[in-house]
Each structure stands twice: as C-alpha cells, then as structure tokens.
Amino acid sequence: MTELRLCREDIYQGSLILINKEFDYKNTEKNISLVPADTDYPEILLECKASSVLARLMKDTGCEKEIVPISGYRSLQDQTDIYRSSMTEYGAEFTTKYVALPNHSEHQSGLAIDLAKRQPEIDFIRPYLPYEGRYGDFRRKAPDYGFIERYQSGKEKITGIAHEPWHFRYIGWPHSKIMAEQGLSLEEYIILIREYPYKRRHLVQRKGRQNVEIFFLPMGEDTEIDLPEHALIQQSGNNVDGVIITMWRKDHD
C-alpha cells in the first residue's frame, strides 16, 4: 500500500476547486505555473496543464485560427479593476450577472478562459462564441479534454452567474465527462462527490483497460490514508471542505 498524506491547505488547491460568490479563492498566486494560452496572444495566460490541453483541443477540432482567447489568468488587481470598470460603465445589475467579485473569480486561479469567435470587433465582457459548426464541435469535445462550459443556461440560480457561452473552465478528465453526461454544474458535482467517501463505494469510470475511481475525503486536520501501491493518484481540493481523489488502476490491480 502507498500512504498519502494530506493537510488542510490541500482543500484550496487543485483543478476542482469551487470558486463562486460563496467560496472565495484562497490559494496564493505564487503557486500557479502560468504560460500563454495561445502563443499568438502571449499576454493571455493559463495554468500550464490547462493551456497544454486547450491547445490540443483547439488543434483536434480545427479551431486554432477560428477561436481566440480573450481573458485568462487575472491577478487580484486585474479583477478589481474589471469589476470597478464594469460597475461604472454598465451598472450594478449587469456587473452582478457577468463579473465576479474580486477574489471570487475563477480567472484568478488560472484555470478559466474566455474564448471568442475570431472577428474584427470583440466584446471583452461578453465575447461571442457560437454553438454551431466547428464551434459546436469544440463544445462537444471539450469535456473529453477536461474542459467544461462553466456557466450553463438554466444553472444561473446555482452558479450565481448569468449564462456565459464563452467561459470555459479546466477541471480535468473524467470529472468533465461526468459533469457533461449528467448535466451538472461544478457546484452540483461537488455535492455529488460527497456521496462517494473514502471507505465506501467509489464513483467509477472506465478508460480503455483502466478503472478510474473517484472518492471524497473530508478534511479537518492533517490526514493520512492508504491507497493501492501501483495506482496513479491525482488529488484536488474542492475549496469547501475536503479533497477529491482520482485513482487510476489497470484491470489486474
């Protein structure tokens, strides 16, 4: 068996952290490894793994020259400036729908990206990204690569944000696939995973000859758990109350 040691700070780190009006972003910005989301737009940054996966998704769907990044990582100061500017230009009602409060924006994590159809004029706050044609292909395949359309139509009361067809969030596979298949928002998925605790039944997905098991570990103080020796383990906090473990095992394990 392999021993996995977790501390309370692990709650606030990883690709599955929930950031919304209720749960603020707690991870320190110095912990993020950032690279350009698109080499043609070096000023728009994304967490390194999310950027690599997005580039592969763009290439595989033939969208490299048709979809452009509009906004990726934002510092606290960036988010503060955008929020204040939107309040001044558009007012409180609009801003509440489309702009997150400082320290409550996914963009500060480096895991969120706003995308738009390439065209002469693009709205920075509400960029246009169609659902048809190649853009539709991009949307349908995004969950296979770990991305979700974060603020879906019909989920506004749950997410606290209006429908944003342009805003995509990297959470990693298989979580993205499960969410897409079940029509869940990230808020709903965090609740679902609590039904699969460490010492009980796990949520299982298959990929080729591998079983992927997902389970939840509530965190109080530092915790140690035993896991199969030859399993590949991925962990992410939920930014609320615990850590989600994703365990990859071959059939014979």
Task: Explain the overall architecture.
The structure is a single chain. By secondary structure, this protein is α+β, with helices and mostly antiparallel strands. It folds into two domains: 1-16 and 188-253, Phosphorylase Kinase, domain 1 (2-Layer Sandwich), CATH 3.30.200; 21-170, Muramoyl-pentapeptide Carboxypeptidase, domain 2, CATH 3.30.1380. Helix content is 25%, strand content 27%. The strands form four sheets. Strands 4-5-7-6 form a four-stranded antiparallel β-sheet. The protein has a four-stranded antiparallel β-sheet with strand order 8-9-12-11, with no helix packed on it. The longest helix has 15 residues, at 76-90. It is globular and about 55 Å long.
Structural class: alpha+beta
* Overall pLDDT: 93
Helix content: 25-40%
Helix count equals 7
Explain the layout of strands and helices:
Elements: E1 2-6, E2 34-36, E3 45-47, H1 48-60, E4 67-71, H2 76-90, H3 92-98, E5 112-117, H4 133-141, E6 147-151, H5 156-159, E7 164-170, H6 175-182, H7 186-193, E8 203-207, E9 210-218, E10 223-227, E11 232-237, E12 242-250
Antiparallel strand pairs: 1-10, 2-3, 4-5, 5-7, 6-7, 8-9, 9-12, 11-12
